[in-house]
Every structure is written in structure tokens, then in C-alpha cells.
Specification:
Blueprint lengths: L2 E5 L9 H15 L3 E7 L18 E4 L4 E2 L2 E2 L4 H12 L3 E6 L11 H4 L3 E5 L10 H20 L2 E4 L2 H6 L10 E3 L14 H13 L11 E6 L8 H10 L3 E6 L5 H10 L6 E5 L3 H10 L2 E4 L10 H8 L4 E4 L5 H9 L2 E4 L4 H12 L2 H18 L2 H21 L1
Parallel strand pairs: 1-2, 1-6, 2-3, 6-7, 7-8, 8-9, 10-11, 10-13, 11-12, 13-14, 14-15
Antiparallel strand pairs: 4-5
Length: about 400
């Protein structure tokens, strides 16, 4: 049986699109007959990690981490854990999920260098125009990134648009294959009655007081409150459309400044920042919203897995058409929403209005999304393609 060790940044309950994708991918690969494990960083900072406990669950090793610096986990013990996990699990292949600075330790460990590698390229480390610290840090990151790619047998990229626009991948295009992200629809359960009740109560808190109940549109955003997500653009869009009530699920460093923006625009009665919420309530909000908004600003938003979550509940989306990102590519493939220029709050408000004012069109968009999820973007379809990549690499290794 093929044995594959995945190296990732985090794993649920740590929130994030890549984290949930990895949690869906591991059991889907196991169902393909592959023995899988993952080494990630513990979501709780401290000196102690966590070794897998039970026999029934897929093994996830959580290396200790001391926090983060520039969005990267600080884990001095990660190379020791990688060495131990390789010795115990005895993988045939390493699957590295990038960006992840700890994955660079594979370059230094002989046990890791003896194995073939697959890189899952979730996003470039963008020399951000919004966070200048990342521009400086990338000068140190790029040589290690390119050294790792030079030793990698295959690179999985999540959309053709991202591949075409990625400068770091340009020298390695011959090794790249496009496999979009996928989702396990069964992970997102239909909401239970209590979660539905809580969700309805939250929507009531942002219902415009001067608008008829049937004309009040429920707009949901889900994502970390960080520099590239564009929540400030979405909040300003709400100011242009009095029919909108907005709930934002997610925590992060911009929570305070976004709260101040809501207050300064007088939107306290129509916009609420909910912070991080448990999965059942988040799913109930998805099931009860009119549409999902994803107003991200930069290619750091490489795909937008939350779009697939909205598709699970047949909800249309309004997104930023970020040049060189897979966010707009997914819209063009599926036709489940509207894409607008990033950073344009007026265009975003107009797009939300155009979708919500036509209930028939809104439902058609949602239905397209749900159909495409089950037909093209299920995690089982993704796992089959990833399995093919593994088999190709190992076959090349045997015949080399």
C-alpha cells in the first residue's frame, strides 16, 4: 500500500480554507487505498505538541509552535518532528502544502531528501502592495522556495489562471498540473434546529429597520480579518445599499479597525462582526443567507474554498475578479455568481443588488453552483486526480 505524508501549516479546528481542504483530502485519499498521515503545527501555542492518539482516526501529528511571525508558524522543533514521523510512518512520498516555511526543513533532512516530493501550490507568497513587511521577507523566502521546487517531482496548482500568472512557478511549468480544490459536501451538514434558531436571531440583528422584511437581503462573508480579504470594501458597499444586512464570520488582526469603520459609517444596525464561530452555526448562516460575498484584494486569495461551501448550500456568490487568481476562474467555470473589479465598493454594491433583486436568477445561480460541486469539485474527484499524480511519480522513481 502506498504511504504518503502530508506537511501542512495547520489542521482543523484551526480555521482556514487550506486547513479544511486537507482535512477533506486525507480521508478521500484513504478511500482510494492510500495510507496517509499529516504533520502540521499545533493550533495552540506552547512547547508541547500532540502525537496521534486513537487507532481509528487518520494520524495527524501536531508539532509544537510558539506563535506566528508574518503569518508563518514559529516551530523550532518541526525538523525533529519531521525526522521522527518519517522514521515511524515510513512514507513512500512527501506531499508538501505551500506556502509553509516549515516545509523547507525537507531540504535539510537526509531522510526527507531521499523521498520523492509533490508540492501542492495553494498560493504564491505575494510581494504584497498592502503589507510591505511581506515584500521584504520574500527576499529571504524566495531562494528556499526555488530550491524546494527544484527538487520536487510534480507541482499541483489549483487553477490555470493562477499557474499562468505565477512568477515563482514560471521556471517549473513542465512539472505543474492543474487540479482545482474540492470539498466533501457531507462535512457541511444541514443545520440542526438550534443552529437555525441562532442564525435567524443573528440575521434579525442586522435587518434594515426601514425596509420591508421581504426586501432585506442577507449577505454573508466568511474569512480571516486580515489585510488581503477586503472586508472594508464590503462594509463600504453596504453603505451604498440600504437593503443589505451583513454578517461577517471570522477573527483576525483587523477586527478593531473594521469595527471602527462600521461605527464611522453609521452601519451598526446593519453590519456585525461575529468573530470566529463554531462550524454548525457558520453552516446555518450559509444555509440561511441570500448570497456569499468574497471581496478579496490580492492573489493571496488563490481560489476561495468558501465558494465551494456556498455551493454546497446552493447560494450564489459575488466575488472580486482578482487578476491571476482562481477566484474569478471558478465563477467563469461554473456560472454561480458575479465577479467585479477588486477594491470597488460601488461595483460590489451594484453586483449584490443585481443578484438579490431577481429571485429567479438568484436561485438559478445557486442551483448551478450546487450541481457543479457534486459533479466537478467534490473531494472524491480531486483525490482520484491526486492519486494519479502519486502513481506517476512513484512509477518514475521505480523506473529511474
Amino acid at each position: 500500500m502506498m504511504r504518503v505524508l502530508h506537511l501542512g501549516k495547520y489542521f482543523p479546528p484551526h480555521p482556514g480554507g487550506v486547513e479544511y481542504f486537507l482535512a477533506d483530502l486525507l480521508p478521500a485519499l484513504a478511500a482510494q487505498g492510500i495510507e496517509v498521515a499529516a504533520l502540521i503545527h499545533h493550533e495552540r501555542a506552547g512547547w508541547r505538541g500532540l502525537w496521534p492518539k486513537g487507532e481509528g482516526d487518520l494520524p495527524v501529528y501536531r508539532a509544537p509552535t510558539l506563535g506566528q511571525w508574518l503569518y508563518a508558524p514559529l516551530s523550532p522543533a518541526f525538523p525533529l518532528w519531521l525526522q521522527r514521523v518519517i522514521e515511524q510512518f515510513k512514507p513512500d512520498l512527501l506531499h508538501l502544502h505551500l506556502p509553509n516555511t516549515s516545509a523547507f526543513w525537507a531540504l535539510a533532512l537526509p531522510a526527507a531528501r531521499r523521498l520523492p516530493w509533490v508540492v501542492h501550490w495553494h498560493a504564491d507568497v505575494v510581494a504584497s502592495q498592502l503589507d510591505r513587511r511581506l515584500r521584504l521577507a520574500y527576499t529571504a523566502y524566495r531562494p528556499l522556495e526555488q530550491a524546494l521546487l527544484a527538487r520536487t517531482r510534480q507541482i499541483i496548482v489549483t487553477s490555470p489562471d493562477y499557474l499562468d500568472s505565477s512568477q515563482p512557478l514560471a521556471p517549473w511549468r513542465a512539472r505543474c498540473t492543474v487540479i482545482p480544490l474540492g470539498l466533501d459536501p457531507d462535512r457541511l451538514a444541514d443545520p440542526d434546529p438550534e443552529s437555525r434558531r441562532l442564525a435567524e436571531g443573528l440575521w434579525e440583528r442586522v435587518r434594515p429597520a426601514s425596509i420591508d422584511h421581504l426586501q432585506a437581503w442577507r449577505v454573508l462573508a466568511i474569512g480571516r480579518l486580515t489585510y488581503y480579504k477586503g472586508h472594508e470594501v464590503l462594509i463600504r458597499a453596504v453603505a451604498h445599499q440600504p437593503e443589505i444586512g451583513l454578517l461577517i464570520v471570522g477573527a483576525g488582526p483587523l477586527a478593531r479597525s473594521l469595527s471602527h469603520l462600521v461605527a464611522s459609517l453609521g452601519l451598526g444596525g446593519r453590519v456585525q462582526l461575529l468573530g470566529h464561530q463554531p462550524d454548525p452555526l457558520t453552516q446555518a448562516l450559509l444555509a440561511s443567507c441570500d448570497l456569499l460575498a468574497l471581496p478579496s484584494l490580492e492573489r493571496t486569495e488563490a481560489f476561495g474554498l468558501v465558494q465551494l461551501e456556498a455551493m454546497r448550500f446552493a447560494k450564489p456568490v459575488v466575488v472580486s475578479d482578482i487578476p491571476g487568481s482562481g477566484v474569478g476562474w471558478l465563477i467563469r467555470q461554473v456560472g454561480h455568481g458575479v465577479a467585479v473589479a477588486p477594491g470597488d465598493s460601488i461595483a460590489l454594491a451594484q453586483a449584490i443588488y443585481s443578484v438579490t433583486k431577481d429571485q429567479k436568477w438568484l436561485m438559478q445561480l445557486g442551483a448551478k453552483g450546487k450541481k457543479a460541486l457534486y459533479k466537478r469539485f467534490s473531494i472524491d474527484a480531486v483525490a482520484k486526480k491526486v492519486n494519479y499524480v502519486y502513481a506517476k511519480i512513484l512509477d518514475q522513481a521505480v523506473n529511474k
